[in-house]
Design goal:
membrane, alpha+beta, about 20% strand, Complement Module, domain 1, about 35% helix, Sushi/SCR/CCP_sf, repeat
Length: about 475
């Protein structure tokens, strides 16, 4: 027998929840989680540049793909092809950007016959330009100008100076004297003139006191004041207990030199040589003769005469005298030796240092001598040029004189020629007149002869015969 089983019934089904709310939650989580790796990368602050600044609004955070723009500061200008922008890279760094602007500069202040020095090697704004002129020219304007920034433009603080040639007017005229090239009114830089005195009408000649040569060194400025032409007479010098060994004469004019010597038993105090100065006085001050003999060296009392100093003739102590020295004296001796070594080293150092100093002084002296030689050469060249100009002028004057003499001779010859022509003309006219008178007389004689012959037949005596 089989038992009958009742059929199994299916369990009741679970009610299904609506799918929409769970989908929304998933999408929301995905939207929150997926951007995390992207927005976690940020760029640091934008690069700071010297010539450029950020343009527009500055953000607090910059993310990959963000771009920033720059512009030039005031007083700067853009230089192509550099970039004016940067981009935030995915790795959190900015794309490469360099200085794209330069400072504006003033134009180069070129100065003819001069030179311009820029201490900063540039003419950018806030820079200076130092201007100087070549030799023989002077600066008209300010020697230092500054490049200023005004608004967006740059310009020099003052008008650019210029160099003008140095000229001097006619040097001062002096009484009883004259100077070379006195016919000229304008003299160029470094041009030299020489003064000289006129001959005197009196018994004493004029002396030129001061610099006889002047040089044009600055606009309308000569190297020194003009000299004076004056009669300089010094009184005959007298030295008590002394004699004049040279320079004796009847008159002592300007720059006359006299040498003195004291008599036996006297010595000279002062200079043995004096000269007649421009103020009619002897220079330097007249010496004096002092009775006695001039000491050759100062007399001093020997140190041995002072208490506490030994006599050089005293006996030198023997070695036995040093046996009683104690340790303190030995230490003092060692200390003295050390001090002596230090002193010697110091002296050697000073000697070496002084040697270098002397070498430096010798170089400076050699430089001064060289500069003096250059000045002397220039002076000789100027004098040579002046001499050449003078010779050329004398040649021109000589030629002009010869031309005038030739012209005078020509005129005299023409005058003599005209005189001879006049005499010849008068002679010819006189001969012509004499010839005409002779011809007139001849005509009168010829006319009288036939008339007499015609009257002869009419005479009654002749007819009768």
């Amino acid at each position: 027998m089989t038992a009958s089983c009742a059929p199994r019934q299916a369990p009741p089904a679970r009610p299904e929840s609506p799918p929409f709310p769970w989908c929304c939650v998933g999408m929301l989580l995905a939207a929150l989680v997926l951007p995390l790796p992207i927005f976690s990368v940020r760029c640091i602050d934008p690069p700071v540049l010297d010539s450029m600044k950020l343009k527009g609004v500055i953000k607090r955070h910059y993310y990959p793909g963000d771009r920033i723009d720059y512009e030039c500061y005031r007083g700067y200008f853009y230089v192509w092809p550099y970039l004016l922008s940067a981009t935030c890279e995915p790795n959190g760094s900015w794309s490469r950007i360099e200085e794209a602007c330069l400072r504006k500069s003033c134009p180069d202040p070129q100065v003819k016959h001069g030179k311009v020095v820029a201490p900063n090697d540039t003419f950018e704004w806030e820079s200076e330009a130092h201007i100087s002129c070549d030799e023989g020219y002077f600066l008209r304007g300010k020697p230092i100008i500054i490049c200023n920034l005004i608004g967006e433009n740059v310009s020099w603080s003052d008008t650019i100076p210029h160099c003008e040639k140095i000229y001097c007017g006619q040097p001062p005229k002096i009484k009883h004297g004259k100077h070379t090239n006195s016919y000229r009114n304008i003299f160029e830089y470094n041009e030299l003139i020489t003064y000289s005195c006129d001959p005197s009408n009196g018994p004493d000649e004029y002396s030129l006191v001061g610099q006889n040569k002047l040089i044009c060194i600055e606009p309308n400025k000569w190297s020194s004041d003009p000299p004076l032409c004056k009669v300089v007479k010094c009184q005959r010098p007298f030295l008590e207990h002394g004699i004049m060994v040279s320079g004796s004469r009847d008159k002592f004019s300007y720059q006359s030199v006299v040498v003195f010597e004291c008599l036996q038993g006297f010595y000279l105090n002062g200079s043995n040589l004096v000269f007649c100065g421009g103020n009619d006085t002897w220079e330097p001050e007249m010496p004096t003769c002092i009775k006695g003999y001039k000491p050759t060296h100062p007399t001093k009392t020997p140190l041995s005469k002072y208490p506490g100093y030994p006599n050089p003739s005293d006996e030198i102590p023997s070695l036995e005298d040093f046996e009683d020295l104690d340790a303190g004296i030995i230490a003092l001796a060692i200390l003295t030796a050390i001090v002596a070594v230090v002193v010697v080293c110091t002296c050697l150092y000073r000697c070496l240092f002084s040697g270098k100093k002397e070498e430096k002084d010798m170089k400076e002296k050699a430089k001064e001598v060289k500069e003096k030689e250059v000045r002397d050469v220039k002076e000789e060249e100027r004098e040579k040029e002046e001499k050449q100009r003078k010779e050329e002028k004398e040649k021109e004057e000589k030629k002009e004189k010869e031309r005038k003499e030739k012209e005078k001779e020509r005129k005299e010859k023409e005058k003599e020629k005209k005189q001879k022509e006049k005499e010849m003309k008068e002679k010819k006219e006189k001969e012509k007149k004499q010839k005409e008178e002779k011809e007139m007389k001849g005509k009168k004689g010829v006319g009288a002869g036939p008339t007499t012959q015609q009257k002869k037949p009419t005479s009654p005596v002749v007819q009768k015969r």
